[in-house]
Design goal:
It is built from 18 helices and 19 strands. The protein is α/β, with parallel strands linked by helices. The protein has 2 domains: 272 residues, Rossmann fold, CATH 3.40.50.1000; 171 residues, no CATH class. It binds magnesium ion. The site of magnesium ion (MG) has 6 residues, from loops.
């Protein structure tokens, strides 16, 4: 039997500390954002693409369907919760749960196929490569409402087909167009479309301002370490969200600010940095920076695109350490956690589901973070008999058998729900975590504690 021991996490161990922005430093009121995004998407599909007006039903009626990490089998109209090995743990056709017989009739007795195994083996290739068109993971809070939209479209198409499934579904490209349109940079600049005008007019409904303690912690951190922000969002959006959540002086918290970073490619590629020309956004080209140039540390410049190698060597130069140690906070399990770990940053995974799945739950059901009846825990699934038949383990980390919790276990140092779990303490605080005493996994565990299902 595995022994459960203790391990220590020390922030002072690191020379450079970085952050993703959306859902990491700057948090959203998820329930409100989900409903707003869903309705914007419904409006687009009904008015632009001629879809059924019944798609306008409130998202909240099916909030239990929302579950981060669901994968859509695009042609069959199925939604699957995957294991770490790419096996179907649970599934639904549209919003209708599939029986074991239905699952095995589609995915065989092993409840998998070469594509699902490929997704589990190489999630970066799965979201960047052609597999993405056949199997689409809904992997973050920005695209999660689209999963319910797709499921409801399948329900309506089946209904008009005499309550029978179609041989092949082709609606996904319409939903994808709706998503691309909703978050397009043109809509951002012109303040048009279904998303930006709403969030800009009433940010208090959708965004959570950062507390004073977090801001103070960031200020102290910057005195001791090199701090950096790597956001995938466009600079105009980062500017706006960060100003609302952190204050108009938000740039002062960081030595380096990178926007439109195109993660996960940022961590592995060699794309050039550009300096954002924010003084004149109409027509003046952003200035490209040679790949061998050291980037000066300044909160005055917002860098665009770029690559980790150059940022890393610039930070090494900046802090005067040959091999500095990097810590990075991010919520996206592929773009942040997996990609940053491959580039040898230590990662703190921000998983809000942890708050919903701790005891007592710290997030309400409406937020779509818990789906006890439909999909079960984000971290563990005991529903699939073959997994149940394995010897039960006393090691809580061994139980992390879902595709996404296994990514956390393999690629993060820590899992927390919110950054305040760490920023509420001084930077020299020693965090004691639960640790598997038998192997030398880098994963130190959950703070402040395990989700209920792993206890
Ligand atoms: Mg994020």
């Amino acid at each position: 039997m595995a022994t459960v021991g203790r391990s220590i996490f020390r922030l002072r161990h690191y020379d450079c500390v970085g952050f993703d922005m959306d859902h990491t430093l700057c948090r959203y009121k998820l329930g409100a954002v989900f409903e707003m995004e869903y309705q914007a998407l419904a409006k687009y599909l009904i008015e632009q693409k001629g879809y059924d007006v019944r798609l306008r039903r409130p998202l909240a009626e099916d909030v239990d369907f929302l579950h981060k990490g669901l994968v859509m089998d695009v042609e069959l109209g199925n939604f699957v919760k995957l294991s770490a090995k790419g096996q179907v743990l649970r599934a639904s056709h549209g919003t209708k749960p599939m029986t074991t017989a239905e699952i095995t009739s589609h995915y065989g007795p092993l409840r998998s196929n070469e594509f699902l195994r490929q997704m589990a083996d190489d999630p970066i290739e799965a979201i960047e490569g052609p597999l993405h068109r056949k199997y689409r993971p809904f992997k973050d809070y920005f695209d999660l409402p689209a999963a319910l939209m797709c499921a409801r479209i399948v329900d309506l198409l089946d209904y008009t087909n005499g309550n029978k499934p179609l041989e092949k579904y082709t609606f996904w490209r319409d939903v994808l167009c709706g998503l691309v349109e909703m978050f397009s940079r043109d809509n951002l600049k012109l303040n048009t479309g279904g998303f930006y005008p709403k969030i800009k007019r009433h940010p208090e409904l959708y965004l959570q301002p950062c507390g004073e303690r977090l801001k103070k912690w960031l200020t102290e951190l910057k005195k001791e370490k090199v701090t950096f922000l790597i956001s995938g969002s466009d600079p105009e959006y980062v500017q706006w969200v960060a100003s609302y959540c952190l204050g108009t002086d938000w740039r002062n918290y960081f030595d380096y600010i990178v926007c439109a970073s195109k993660k996960p490619g940022f961590f592995s590629g060699q794309r050039a940095f550009q300096r954002w020309n924010y003084t004149n956004s109409s027509g003046v080209e952003d200035e490209e920076i040679p790949l061998d140039e050291v980037l000066p540390a300044t909160s005055k410049t917002i860098y665009l695109r770029g690559n980790w190698t150059q940022l890393k060597s610039s930070m090494s130069w900046c802090c005067g350490v040959d091999h500095p140690k990097f810590l990075y906070f991010g919520d996206h399990l592929i773009q942040d956690v997996l990609a940053a770990d491959i580039s040898r940053l230590d990662v703190v995974a921000m998983v809000e589901e942890l708050a919903a799945e701790s005891q007592p739950p710290k997030a309400p059901l409406i937020d779509g973070l818990t789906s006890y009846k439909r999909w079960g825990s984000f971290f563990y699934d005991g529903g699939f008999t073959e997994i149940n038949n394995r010897q039960t383990t006393a090691d809580p980390f061994e139980k992390m058998n879902t595709l996404w919790s296994n990514l956390v276990r393999k690629h993060a140092r820590l899992c927390v729900a919110y950054i305040e779990t760490i920023s509420d303490y001084p930077s020299n605080h020693e965090f004691v975590t639960v640790q598997n005493g038998q192997n030398s996994d880098k994963f130190l565990g959950f703070l402040p504690g395990l989700p209920t299902c792993l206890v």
